[in-house]
Design a protein that fits this description.
The complex is a heterotetramer, with 2 copies of chain A (298 residues) and 2 copies of chain B (305 residues). With 298 residues, chain A is α/β, with parallel strands linked by helices. Chain A is 24% helix and 32% strand. In chain B, the strands form 3 sheets. In chain B, strands 3-4-7-8-9-10-13-14 form an 8-stranded parallel barrel, surrounded by 6 helices. In chain B, strands 5-6-12-11 form a 4-stranded antiparallel sheet, with no helix packed on it. In chain B, β13, α6 and β14 form a beta-alpha-beta unit. Chain B has 305 residues and is α/β, with parallel strands linked by helices. The chains are: A alpha/beta (298), B alpha/beta (305). Bound molecules: flavin-adenine dinucleotide (FAD) (2 copies), flavin mononucleotide (2 copies) and FE2/S2 (inorganic) cluster (2 copies).
Chain lengths: 298, 305, 305, 298
């Protein structure tokens, strides 16, 4: 789990975002939603490793792709790393996304929360699963610079929202989600009514069972989301209300990255209703959105 | 070439080498098993246990500092009962001496925890963490008042035959008086140091970063303070010292041993380099070989000559 | 665009900006004049003075540590007489408020030093360093015992009308009690923190690196401890705080001010980046501008809201 | 005094010794025996600057040359710096060697103590001053690797000593010095006796006055030395006994490098016989060898 990976590329792609391609042992076992815990320096400052999601897995080549945004000292230092050098990597770590086998998969991303969803897009069987990405960002520049190098090349349906209205929907990505959920509910209602069921119970009915336990024959509709905590909470609540299964990828400040220090916990409500701690690094970063307790004070 | 003798004697406790892992940084011994076989360690110290389960502090619980980190986990742990029922059997499988770190908020808490530790298991010693606030005495930590510290050790001593380690906090004016107090109280060894109290503030939110406002500083930044305390305490007590605080390399470990530590514990460094404990074992051995020592214990306290 | 108001009120003392240099790290104000005009600083604190000249400790006097350094200069200084005769006239030429740091080994020492400071010179305040061992009371530092600390301030207060700063050592169990004691004793301000006691050992010689065995830890490594103490003391006293300990960047300075420091002092960072104080003044100004504060004093203590 | 200098070259020349050529403002004012205080990293660890002597000054090109040996974390980090990058440099700092105008200059170097002497060799008017270098090192490999890239190319007289006898004199460089001093004394004696002076007073006579105050007409004989403290002490004592003026370049652990912290002091006996502190970084690193008190306990 501790590897030295060779830097193949470390390139700015725009808007303070860099693509980092690493060759080594991680690719062989990486799965969608997992991350690596990277050492950014060689002295004791900055001390801690930095968690970065795996955004691309090329098993034949033995390469993983990461995208990182420069926000502080660690990521700033990382930009100085050159192709040919090596980096110390712990990974792949964490419990990733469920990869649905059939149905529809709606991906909701806020800003750089887009990146961890790429591996999920790549992993699903697109002949059996309809994938659509809803992506929100600050403005057109960010969306075009970052999307132009990534999402827009991926041959997948998407819709964007920008806070300043400079591109796509003017507003939050959760507006797009809400619309999609309502649209889906309406379609399903029509479908079910045709099947002779009562409309009223349908949405809550959807909410039972884990994502993989969808009854055969009925196309599953699931959501996976990554982005700022506030957005994830809104996504989880919207989906919860509509009874749609949702997985969210959380971020938390980490020390060990392997479950040993209890630095990165979240709170979940377990099936028996009690509150329990989970480690974002080991038990997550992907959690069932219905389980997560968003406010400690609750 | 004769192999270097790494055997380490901590009072009645004998370890195959002097390198262990520090409480709270090595979970319950399983997380780092993906990197190497933990039985290569001298011992493993597990996360601090309290009588009842604790959910700990809200996040963020960690914050980086120059060459260090703050943590405010808040003693999250499964509690005594679950520890004995669920974790101890799993620890048994690691085939490594286990040191159980115990924390309490009253003397009764310590007594209860000590008496509950089986004497015929993988548990090699009990480490008494006295950095917790003493609820009865108004919240001041047991570890900052020599009389309370001595009392905690005495009551723990009465309740177990296992070797006892007193773990001291560095947030005191006079570490030597505290060390003497826990020695008097019956400690077989002294662990030095726990974390230094610190905090950081977020420039964007203008609030403390940690959910708990303050936290414990660990990592290389604290090393010179820890070495100093080991050096001072070595002069003043007879019981062996387990040195910790920023140890990341074998050079750091040698420094602690020269200062007077019989064994060393690796904490924060595990997060940065999971193989640190093994590299330290190797480096210590090589240092002794090159310097002409037959046993690693020969270097303990040499800086005092 | 209105300029940001940097005026800093420390009790009766008003400075044009809140950034000063720390005692012992800025000589007698002349060494850094080759880099910039010192009058751009809020104030300069000069090296600690004692009644008699001191030759200080043998070398080595400095040792590097992770993100920090140890020093054991041992209060080398020209003594009170030479300070007044030779150095003060030269300081006068710098056109900068001067803070004189005084150290003594008895109450009489402090009284003598305080009464000797002219009240009509460039001396803007006297900083009372109480980290020295109190010879009469058997060597324990004045600064670790609240009653002695209060007494030192009281005696100093009686002997000068100049604003008085009490400089506290962080090597104590309870910084708040000490801060309250010096406030009671008559301190107009409190400086936090002096150095943490530490040591390092040389792996080749197997001896302590420093000629004096132990030394004071400063630099970025101690920043989280210093911020914590400023935060704690701000809650407990009414007098303004001068924050120091690892401040290297404007971000660090903002952190100290949010924690409750009215002014900040730059020490070890001068050695690394001689322009650090100026960069901090600029950065503070820019932070206030971008965050919408009209005066830098508005951010003091905001982390407590 | 604080400059960003461009790295022109940073090259291993053998035996863990690197040559570092910097272009910038320092060259314009640097003098023999001065040093620079270099920042080796950009994070807080390693924290302190490292003092390195100026070993070459090319004013027309605006370049200085430094040689450093890798001994710890700071110098190890320095090896990673590449041409084209910049380094933060405080300098030139310190009070350097006296440059004699006439006579004979004997340079005594221990190991890498050779480097600071190069600028002195370059600075003296070789038509008026006879220069000879005595250089001691561990073994032939060190001497040949390092000397081959430096001293042996400088067209200056030299003699070497190695501890293991693998090259030149087998033993200490101070043996060579002693021989040179005795030889000189014998020659001088002959000279003075010829002038009708009494032989007995000659050596102590030489010792009076500063290096530059040599009476006209009589060729001055001076020594300058750099190397480990023990060697310098031996050099100073030998010269003292023979009454030969000697300057020594001291090393001490430094923090500020500019005289502000009192971290790097030495002890000197002033002309009135009292002991006083001097700062190696500012008042030195070059001191009159007769002044230095070598053992604090004295
Ligand atoms: C599971 C996971 C996956 C992530 N994936 C990506 C990714 O693919 N691309 C990307 O750009 N960023 C990602 N992040 C966020 C990234 O880890 C932080 O932006 C980065 O650690 C900041 O480091 P810094 O030194 O630049 O900032 P600093 O503020 O200097 O960091 C100081 C400390 O805070 C921690 N920290 C700061 N911000 C965050 C944050 N948002 N989340 C967690 N820790 C933080 C750092 O790890 C470090 O310990 C992920 C975070 C997690 C937890
Ligand atoms: C005036 C002066 C001129 C020098 N010129 C040269 C030169 O031209 N070439 C060269 O190779 N070396 C020179 N040195 C020695 C050089 O400064 C040290 O070897 C270097 O600082 C070691 O740093 P490090 O990080 O590799 O070692 P570390 O041991 O990791 O350094 C730790 C700390 O100790 C200090 N330190 C360690 N060794 C020495 C030493 N011998 N002298 C002073 N401080 C030390 C470092 O500066 C640092 O603060 C000179 C020293 C001085 C004082
Ligand atoms: C995340 C974390 C959790 C810790 N939890 C405990 C604990 O439960 N009990 C205890 O006695 N010490 C605890 N410590 C302190 C360490 O055991 C050790 O004393 C300290 O971190 C200094 O060593 P280091 O610098 O090598 O980390 C914890 C430290 C860290 C970093
Ligand atoms: C070399 C050195 C000498 C110092 N001398 C004094 C002194 O004479 N008096 C004093 O009160 N503090 C002295 N200090 C402490 C500093 O003023 C300051 O409190 C401490 O270094 C923490 O700040 P920093 O981390 O920014 O250096 C000295 C510090 C250093 C590094
Ligand atoms: S970061 Fe240590 S448990 Fe998650
Ligand atoms: S290094 Fe600071 S005075 Fe010389």
């Amino acid at each position: 789990m501790l590897h030295r990976e060779i830097v193949i590329e470390n390139q700015r792609i725009g808007a303070d975002v860099y693509r980092l391609v690493l060759k080594g042992a991680v690719a062989a076992t990486a799965r969608p939603g997992q991350f690596v815990h990277l050492q950014v320096g060689t002295t004791t400052d900055p001390l801690l490793r930095r968690p970065i999601s795996i955004a691309g897995i090329d098993q034949p080549k033995g390469e993983i792709t990461l995208y990182y945004r420069v926000v502080g000292r660690g990521t700033a230092k990382l930009t100085g790393v050159r192709a040919g050098e090596t980096l110390s990597v712990i990974g792949p770590v964490g419990t990733g996304f469920t990869v649905p086998a059939v149905g529809e998969l709606l991906l909701v991303a806020g800003g750089i929360g887009l990146f961890p969803l790429f591996t999920l897009i790549e992993a699903v069987d697109r002949s059996a699963v309809r994938v659509k990405v809803l992506w929100g960002g600050e403005n057109r520049t960010f969306i075009q610079e970052v999307g132009g190098e990534t999402l827009f090349k991926m041959d997948v349906d998407y819709a964007v929202a920008t806070m300043d209205g400079s591109m796509g929907h003017a507003g939050l990505v959760t507006d797009l989600l809400q619309a999609a959920l309502e649209d889906r509910a309406a379609r399903s209602l029509a479908h079910r009514t045709a099947e002779g069921q009562t409309a009223g119970t349908a949405p809550s009915d959807w909410g039972t069972g884990a994502l993989t336990e969808r009854p055969e024959g009925r196309a599953a509709f699931t959501v996976a989301a990554c982005g700022p905590k506030g957005m994830l909470q809104a996504v989880a609540e919207s989906c919860g209300q509509m009874g749609v299964p949702v997985e969210v990828s959380l971020e938390e400040r980490m020390a060990c990255g392997v479950g040993a220090c209890l630095g990165c916990v979240c709170l979940v409500r377990t099936t028996d209703g009690t509150l329990a701690r989970r480690r974002v690094c080991k038990d997550g970063p992907v959690f069932d959105g219905r389980e997560v307790v968003w406010d400690e004070a609750d | 070439m004769k192999p270097i003798d790494l055997t380490t004697h901590l009072g009645r406790l004998t370890l195959k080498n002097p390198v262990m892992t520090a409480s709270g940084t090595y979970g319950f011994g399983e997380e780092y098993a993906a990197f190497y076989d933990p039985s290569r360690l001298g011992a493993i110290t597990v996360k601090g246990i309290t009588p009842l389960p604790r959910r700990g502090n809200p996040v963020p619980r960690v914050a980086e500092t120059p060459s260090g980190m703050l943590n405010a986990v808040g003693l999250e742990n499964p509690g005594l009962e679950a520890f004995l029922a669920t974790y101890l059997p799993r620890l048994e499988k690691l085939k490594t001496p286990i040191i159980v770190n115990i924390s309490g908020f009253s003397l009764d808490d310590y007594a209860l925890m000590a008496s509950a530790m089986p004497e015929d298991s993988c548990i090699a010693a009990v480490e008494v963490n006295i950095s917790c606030p003493n609820i009865k005495q108004g919240g001041l930590a047991f570890g900052t008042d020599p009389r309370s510290a001595e009392e905690v050790l005495r009551v723990t001593r009465k309740n177990t035959k296992l070797p006892l380690i007193a773990k001291l906090t560095p947030n005191v004016t006079d570490i030597v008086t505290l060390a003497k107090a826990v020695e008097n109280g019956g400690a077989d060894m002294i662990s030095l140091i726990n974390t230094l109290l610190g905090m950081r503030i977020d420039l964007k939110t203008r609030k403390p970063i940690l959910g708990n406002t303050m936290g414990g500083l660990s990592g290389p930044a604290v090393l010179p303070v820890a070495v100093r305390m080991v050096y001072q305490v070595y002069k003043a007590v007879r019981v062996p010292i387990i040195g910790m605080g920023g140890i990341s390399t074998w050079q750091d470990a040698v420094e602690f041993m020269l200062a007077g530590a019989t064994a060393v514990s690796v904490g924060t460094a595990n997060f940065v380099n999971p193989l640190a404990p093994l590299e330290i074992i190797e480096g210590l051995t090589e240092y002794c070989r090159q310097a002409g020592f037959a046993a690693v214990r020969e270097i303990v306290g040499l800086a005092h000559r």
